[in-house]
Amino acid sequence: MTTIVTIRTTEGDKTSEHTIMLTDEALKRARRAFNPSGNAEVDKLKCLAAAFYTLLQPVQETRHPIAGREAATAMTDIQAGAMFAVSAVTA
Protein backbone atom coordinates (compact mmCIF):
# COMPACT_ATOMS: atom_id res chain seq x y z
CA MET A 1 0.00 0.00 0.00
CA THR A 2 1.25 3.47 -0.84
CA THR A 3 0.52 6.30 1.57
CA ILE A 4 0.81 9.89 0.38
CA VAL A 5 0.44 13.14 2.32
CA THR A 6 -0.38 16.24 0.29
CA ILE A 7 0.19 19.72 1.69
CA ARG A 8 -1.43 22.69 -0.05
CA THR A 9 -0.46 26.21 0.93
CA THR A 10 -2.00 29.44 -0.28
CA GLU A 11 -0.61 32.93 0.07
CA GLY A 12 -2.63 35.56 -1.71
CA ASP A 13 -3.18 34.29 -5.25
CA LYS A 14 -0.27 31.85 -5.11
CA THR A 15 -0.97 28.21 -4.29
CA SER A 16 1.68 25.54 -3.85
CA GLU A 17 1.16 21.82 -3.46
CA HIS A 18 3.69 19.39 -2.05
CA THR A 19 3.28 15.64 -2.17
CA ILE A 20 5.18 13.36 0.21
CA MET A 21 5.24 9.62 -0.46
CA LEU A 22 5.70 8.09 2.98
CA THR A 23 8.45 5.50 3.33
CA ASP A 24 7.81 2.11 4.89
CA GLU A 25 10.42 2.90 7.53
CA ALA A 26 8.67 6.16 8.43
CA LEU A 27 5.31 4.41 8.73
CA LYS A 28 6.86 1.76 10.98
CA ARG A 29 8.52 4.45 13.11
CA ALA A 30 5.13 6.17 13.50
CA ARG A 31 3.54 2.79 14.42
CA ARG A 32 0.74 3.41 11.95
CA ALA A 33 -0.29 -0.24 11.95
CA PHE A 34 -1.10 -0.03 15.68
CA ASN A 35 -4.52 1.55 15.91
CA PRO A 36 -6.77 -1.02 17.61
CA SER A 37 -9.76 1.33 17.73
CA GLY A 38 -9.49 2.21 14.02
CA ASN A 39 -9.71 5.89 14.99
CA ALA A 40 -9.37 8.05 11.85
CA GLU A 41 -7.84 10.94 13.82
CA VAL A 42 -5.12 8.61 15.15
CA ASP A 43 -4.38 7.49 11.60
CA LYS A 44 -4.08 11.11 10.40
CA LEU A 45 -1.73 12.03 13.25
CA LYS A 46 0.48 9.01 12.61
CA CYS A 47 0.62 9.80 8.88
CA LEU A 48 1.64 13.38 9.63
CA ALA A 49 4.40 12.14 11.94
CA ALA A 50 5.51 9.72 9.20
CA ALA A 51 5.64 12.62 6.73
CA PHE A 52 8.11 14.42 9.01
CA TYR A 53 10.15 11.23 9.35
CA THR A 54 10.19 10.76 5.57
CA LEU A 55 11.54 14.28 5.06
CA LEU A 56 14.11 14.01 7.86
CA GLN A 57 15.41 10.52 7.15
CA PRO A 58 17.75 11.58 4.31
CA VAL A 59 19.06 14.42 6.47
CA GLN A 60 19.78 12.01 9.33
CA GLU A 61 21.71 9.75 6.95
CA THR A 62 23.87 12.60 5.68
CA ARG A 63 27.58 12.61 6.36
CA HIS A 64 27.31 15.99 8.09
CA PRO A 65 27.33 15.09 11.80
CA ILE A 66 25.53 18.19 13.05
CA ALA A 67 22.65 17.87 10.56
CA GLY A 68 22.33 14.16 11.31
CA ARG A 69 22.17 14.75 15.04
CA GLU A 70 19.64 17.57 14.67
CA ALA A 71 17.44 15.39 12.44
CA ALA A 72 17.60 12.56 14.98
CA THR A 73 16.66 14.95 17.79
CA ALA A 74 13.76 16.32 15.72
CA MET A 75 12.49 12.79 15.04
CA THR A 76 12.60 11.98 18.76
CA ASP A 77 10.61 15.13 19.53
CA ILE A 78 8.11 14.33 16.76
CA GLN A 79 7.67 10.86 18.25
CA ALA A 80 6.88 12.37 21.64
CA GLY A 81 4.50 14.89 20.10
CA ALA A 82 2.69 12.21 18.13
CA MET A 83 2.27 10.05 21.24
CA PHE A 84 0.76 12.94 23.20
CA ALA A 85 -1.46 13.88 20.25
CA VAL A 86 -2.78 10.31 19.98
CA SER A 87 -3.37 10.29 23.72
CA ALA A 88 -5.30 13.56 23.42
CA VAL A 89 -7.64 12.41 20.63
CA THR A 90 -8.34 9.08 22.34
CA ALA A 91 -8.93 10.47 25.86
Can you give a write-up of this model?
- The protein is α+β, with helices and mostly antiparallel strands and about 90 residues long.
- The protein has one domain (about 25-90).
- It has three helices and two strands; from the N terminus they run E-E-H-H-H.
- It has helices at about 25-30, 40-60, 65-90, and strands at about 5-10, 15-20.
- It has a two-stranded antiparallel sheet.
- Helix 2 packs antiparallel against helix 3 (about 65-90).
- It is globular and about 40 Å long.
Overall 3D geometry? globular
Total number of beta strands: 2
**Strand-residue proportion:** 15-25%
Q: What is the succession of H and E elements?
A: EEHHH
Q: Please give the radius of gyration in angstroms.
A: 15 Å
Largest sheet: 2 strands, antiparallel
| Number of H/I helices | 3
**Any low-confidence stretches, pLDDT <50, length ≥5?**
none
Mean pLDDT: 95
Name the features.
91 residues; alpha+beta; two-stranded antiparallel sheet; 3 helices; 58% helix; globular
How are the elements arranged and paired?
Layout (H helix, E strand, L loop, with lengths): L3 E8 L2 E8 L2 H6 L10 H21 L4 H26 L1
Helix pairs in contact: 2-3
Summarize the structure.
58% of the residues lie in helices and 18% in strands. The chain is α+β, with helices and mostly antiparallel strands and 91 residues long. The longest helix is centred in the C-terminal third of the chain and has 26 residues, at 65-90.
